[in-house]
């Protein structure tokens, strides 16, 4: 029988199915998944087996919940036994197990079961003709368990009546052996199905009772409830304590003097044994030496007992002993002497719970790691410590009644080492948080940190010691992770995206511990409203004529695609001469993709350094800047260059003479608004800001909302913008990660089309990258179902904008003649305007023959001489170089153009010749130049009287 046929027999009911897998080489590597069909279950079993996991399937068909607890079991289709084989097991060999199983079935007249070689043991199945509910199955399974005990058949008692049990499916391997052993059926013929009612009668159906619940004292508070939920009693431990002088003398007498024991005392002893975890053996150990001992009578007597007897009842049946006991009046029943904390199994450590930290994540599956010794986890959660007491007994105590443990160590460049902790609360779900190691070792700081996270316990010393033990364990076992100091893409291959406290992978979301640089921003990424309401809000812009604002929305998504581009930033500036046109609201609407727009948007009041620091922290998220109108021209020029540098300025720390830790270079889109063109304003600072214009794309917008009626709608829309955010970004980046090659190919093709239609070249690479990312994002959002904008009109619009910007930059190209003309006109009043003259000394005795009356003399400084009759210009190099520097003109290039294109040459010249000024000769630039004298409004100082 193959795997599928086997599962079809074992799981005949309709519902959900469960696989549990364990890596025998790593105790913390556990997987528990749920499936809707047997085909999915079979495929999962195969894939996990190939990966080296020991694979198990749940024998019960599950309800709707994602857990394998008994209360979620709907139906079962078989009864089963687990026969452990090996030198130290109940059956030395598989042959021994099969022989005893055959004898057991013959004695009890049970039908022949289907047999499976589990790799080291034997599994026996009686498959039913149709599934039964757990309410009918459990009493029958309990009777099968009792039959095994009555007949001395050593099937594992923990398995037989466990409705939530898992066993190995046929076709997988037992990886605990070397080499792995195949799990296979031992009977080639199809199994014979049995009728539940007939099987019920063979087990003794008339006497079936529901299994009794274990006794637990009333729990006065949540901690006691948790403790009791993890507690069971061991009769063996009670006897061990008794024979060590620390137990119950009454039970010692019942056990030691079985032949003389009265029926009431025997019944009292059975009442304790029945509610212990080892009751199957304990009830017979208390009875087997009595002359009239009968297995059936003992079981019948036990079934009539409702609960463990109290100490007062023992004292009533046999006075004068209990009052001498050291435990008299300290405990209520001897059963508490056997209380042990049930330690969690590997299966118990796989839990499903909602995340209180990750807002965009569904119910998560958590694998709780093994706690470091001497601590351990209870079967139902909580932290416990086991130690040896002064009397030699093993003492167990609760440290904290809920699960809390260290997940990993992280290292932050500023605060040093920290630990990420995970806290499971019964109602709030699972939260994760980070505590600096300095707080872990400080009692007061640790108390504050724990209390802030909801750990309500008066004495923190034991949890503090427990946490320190965890840290030491992790330090010995693994290296610390680097805390993510930036949002956006993480890893070399875009395998994760950091968004607030979420580390988003294509198939899961993990907790991202805060770093010193990101901690304050985490609340900005907490989602608000709903995804559907966000879509409705975004749909408001889906109108003809709103292509500029649709492009802004696409650019917000597109910031995440800039990582695929060879440039660090693509900047866009939106300007209009008037305020109140909807520019700021459009930016806020686009930022709702990622989080709270009011927190993510940078405003005019924010300093330049703040803006750049946010840019570094955002990393891959869009940097949107509102209202840059009041920035000085030089600051705007610096901003344009820093955009594309990918990093903020390097600075020293305030506390030491060392560089501040900078993050990785950013890759994002940036959009700004203002009342004027940034390029026009930068032109006030420098001549022809062509470089800045290539780094910042600009467009002018009209009013978004044009009448009173539309204002009512837009006011409501603005409220929706501020109440629905933080949903779409995670969905978008997950899609990108899952389809990275396809997205990359689409992005390249869109960029090539834009470059071709807009006539872009390599010097337009910043515009090209931003436009391609925005349009590609709109296409992807339409495919995903996040937006319904048609990308084609937006593409046509951005191509028009690109062409317009390209023409603007082209118009900035000035000839060397124009630049020189600008220099002359700006310095008109500092030039000596004069006719040329030959040296006429000696031709007259008046002393005036060497003087020429200038047309105009310089006011404040002599920067040049212009001989109006010869049209020759003599330039002072120092003054010309200073002017070029102020105009951001490359002096060396300009000088070379003057020489090659206008014939300039260096000569020695006395610039003041022909005047009363007695200046010596100096090195100047001489060139022929026809000055444009249209500057009629320029005031000159004439010598004409």
Explain this structure to me?
β19 and β20 (416-425) form a beta hairpin. The protein is an alpha+beta fold. The strands form 10 sheets. Strands 4-5-7-6-11 form a 5-stranded antiparallel β-sheet. α18 (547-558) runs parallel beside α19, α18 crosses α29 (791-810) and α28 (765-784) runs antiparallel to α29. The radius of gyration is 43 Å and the shape is elongated. The protein starts with a helix and ends in a 17-residue tail after the last strand. The protein has 5 domains: 3-207, RepB DNA-primase, N-terminal domain (Alpha-Beta Plaits, 2-Layer Sandwich); 222-341; 350-483, no CATH class; 524-651 and 659-810, 3-Layer(aba) Sandwich (Rossmann fold); 816-928, no CATH class.
Please give a handful of descriptors for the protein shown.
5-stranded mixed β-sheet, 945 residues, disordered C terminus, 5-stranded antiparallel β-sheet, Alpha-Beta Plaits, elongated, alpha+beta, 35 strands, 5 domains
